[in-house]
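Weekly puzzle thread! Below is a chain. First person to post its structure in token form gets bragging rights.
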Amino acid sequence: MTAREHHFLPALAALPLSQRATGLMPQPVESVINSWLNLNISAQQRLLQNQQENLQAWGAWLQRIPQIARANTMSKLAEQEMNVMMSAGQLASQQLVDLISLQENLQVNYSYWFSLHHPAAGLMSNSRPSPRLFAAELKPESRSR
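Winning reply:
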């Protein structure tokens, strides 16, 4: 067992008991646990990648600050200060958008995982057509819109 999987042990220890008690997981427990761990590891990797990209972007931003001291007129100084501040705002804005996009993506992925491994999820969603069925029913001319 890897170090990343170690923090899931308390939840995994309770899993067989809950499965026997409620019968919620029809798949073999090992495959459910493996898919859950893979989903969590993937989420952690994406978050770490996002954080590394953010650190690199802020590092590049910090390297622009010494350029302000090179301004030889007040107008150039004001222009460079404003450019640095606007780029900081753009970085913060883009990072917030990236983080929210990641959260939305994870929400979809975990919901999909839950629908695959929880029998009650299929019962709850029977009133709506699945996206795959809906896309298959579209006529070729309406797909291009």
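Puzzle host: Confirmed. Bonus trivia for everyone else. Confidence is low (pLDDT under 50) at residues 18-22, 124-145.
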